[in-house]
Design brief:
Helix content: 25-40%
CATH architecture of the largest domain: 3-Layer(aba) Sandwich
Shape: globular
CATH class of the largest domain: Alpha Beta
Low-confidence stretches: none
Strand content: 15-25%
Largest sheet: 6 strands, antiparallel
Number of helices: 8
Order of helices and strands: HEEEHEHEHEEHHEEHEEEEH
Number of domains: 2
Number of strands: 13
Distance between the termini: 31 Å
CATH topology of the largest domain: Alpha-D-Glucose-1,6-Bisphosphate, Chain A, domain 3
Structural class: alpha+beta
Length: about 260
């Protein structure tokens, strides 16, 4: 298709500017955006704040877990720790899994999960649907979940735990080194006695929060992300990423982010 106004990626906040303006102008409860083939969703609340993929899953999981207490809710390794904590608080079983829609779908089948999601805006409903990433259906379920909560989406967003996180940091790298660098970092972390989840790359938990480094499935890049309770903690986590990559000969470029 042709997209003369802006690229149709609903997870890039700049692409949601017109939607935010419309929500403000019409005093709407919230606004919804789709990508080019409508398998990814982006949402802004009544104040124009972006509801990211992991935050959407918090809202969507609530009515599912009321109907199926203890159900497994899956999110990818890039999701906030606040999501996994919230699923547990609501009586669900949180499961962190590898990024990639085919990997998520197969894990849903394996575990009998009724709902899964990715930071990229892919939302998968097996509950009352077919288990694939359909953003139009996810939008309908969001409207239903917000209505069932008795609150506005703006209120639900305001009640979510506050944390600070980087966007996705991307480090261009030769294909031949992509997975090797992650393995080198994992080996050093093991020697250091770090608390590491190796579901997909390395996700390292520290007193400040967590940081992630993984190899992209589709591009010659390493992908990193970090989340902390405050900005100082986030800076320390990003420094840790830079140090580890530096020891493997990878430097952050101006386009990498943060």
């Amino acid at each position: 298709g042709t997209f003369p106004n802006h690229h149709p990626d609903p997870t890039v906040e700049a692409n949601l500017a017109d939607l935010k303006a419309l929500v403000a102008d019409k005093k709407l409860d919230f606004g919804i955006a789709f990508d080019g083939d409508a398998d990814r969703i982006g949402v802004v609340d009544g104040e124009g704040r972006v509801i990211w993929g992991d935050q959407l899953l918090m809202v969507l999981a609530a009515p599912v877990l009321k109907e199926f207490p203890g159900a497994t809710i899956i999110a990818d390794v890039k999701a906030s720790q606040t999501l996994f904590d919230r699923i547990a608080e609501m009586g669900g079983t949180p499961l962190m899994w590898k990024t990639g829609h085919s990997l998520i779908k197969s894990k849903m089948k394996e575990t009998g999960s009724p709902l899964a999601g990715e930071m990229s805006g892919h939302i998968f409903f097996k509950h009352e649907w077919y288990g694939f990433d359909d953003a139009l259906y996810a939008a309908i379920r969001l409207i239903r979940a917000v209505s069932a909560s008795g609150k506005s989406l703006t209120e639900l967003k305001s009640e979510m735990p506050v944390s600070v996180a980087t966007p996705e940091l991307r480090f261009p790298i030769d294909e031949s080194r992509k997975f090797a660098v992650v393995e080198e970092v994992a080996a050093r972390l093991a020697v250091d006695g770090a608390t590491v989840d190796t579901t997909d790359g390395v996700r390292v938990n520290t007193d400040d929060g967590w940081w992630l480094l993984r190899a992209s499935n589709t591009q010659d890049v390493l992908v990193a992300r970090a989340e902390a309770k405050d900005r100082a903690g986030l800076d320390r986590l990003v420094d840790a990423i830079d140090r580890q990559l530096g020891r493997s000969g990878v430097e952050r470029t101006a386009n990498s982010g943060h």
